[in-house]
Write a structure and sequence with these properties.
alpha+beta; eight-stranded mixed β-sheet; BirA Bifunctional Protein, domain 2; 16 strands; 2 domains; Rossmann fold; 18% strand; 18 helices; 453 residues
Length: 453
Amino acid sequence: MAQKPSIPKGTRDFSPIEMARRNYIFDTIKKVFRLYGFNQIETPAMENLSTLMGKYGEEGDKLLFKILNSGDYLRGIDRDLIDSGDTNRLAAQLCEKGLRYDLTVPFARYVVQHRNEIQFPFRRFQIQPVWRADRPQKGRYREFYQCDADVVGSDSLVNEIELLQIIDDVFSRLNINIAIKLNNRKVLAGIAEFIGEPDKMIDITVAIDKIDKIGIDNVNAELIERGLSQDAVNALRPILEIDGDLEERLAKLDSLLASSSVGMLGVSELREVIDGVKAVGLKAQLDLDVSLARGLNYYTGTIIEVKAMDVQIGSITGGGRYDNLTGIFGLPNVSGVGISFGADRIYDVMNTLNLYPEELQQSTTIMFTNFGSAEAAYALKLVREVRNAGIPAEVFPDSTKIQKQMKYANAANIPFVAIVGESEIAQGKVTLKNMVTGEQKLLTVAEVIDAIK
């Protein structure tokens, strides 16, 4: 017996109605991106592995899908290396390419490669799938879409303020209640200085970024494992537990990080962004979270994360400022800032809350019946006029009983059926049936178009 087909864990098929819902999300995000002056680009699904490695931190590098070299991929490989179990060095020789982990690093590569064609500041958006060799679980997939908007070639914090407005605008249009969390990488550097562990910043950020998942006690244990002293861990805890409103938290950070110039710069940038957002107005809840690190080494300033308020799920949008990303590809001193909408998690949130417009349930607005070759020929002529008027329409392909054709229209949520028989052809009309009310009218095709519109 043939083996039942399946798909890899962490991936999904999408039915026509599911695609209609996903496209509603993509189209909403695209409209807002374009409204703010962003232009679309695309990059390949695979990149040279050298482009990807070392950009996402130790944790991220482990999650890269590596593509085995084609042909005799073992030719020239050191056999001792195979026996040694050094998978990282072995992978570097077996795999020259990898599937992209996100859209930001490929974008940085794109900027460097096309620097002579780009007008800075460059505002781009990109909606494409990415892949991560993660453990599949609710809200976490191995293949998923990101919807990114970035500005490169500008240091201005106006960009952060506008990106926060984009987030607010998108989720307002999708009717999702959100909380936007902010932090700043310079604040995290200042905290590392404050607790006497400036060289352990990466270890600190990787650990504290897990507070929501594993709790502060487990984070403290991980920090000890990563080589921090108990005194440093004790000094860190009250900082991570700072509370109060936005202004009170900023004031406490001001006081705690007074001895750190980089920390104070981070607090100053946070205050400018928060004040700027307040001045233009924001529907979403805004929060300052000093534990927010997002675990990506390329962030250098503002860090952004968005959570859905009404559904238990991971972050549905994230982003931040990166000053050095293009430098590693040979183009220094080009600052960038961007956000990334997690379309698949947004999709799950909207499914849970049933937030889609009712009209998404249908793709065809009117179906023409088919009772024979003459009737089908007549219907095909009329359906073209209906489509030219911008109305989605189809002709039932098989000549069969009307009950079967009506059953199909009901199952497909088609709101109108144009019945075409001998008498309708003789009069140059159709009988238009409203599938919701059951009402029927004998109309010309022009009248059908007017009635539907």
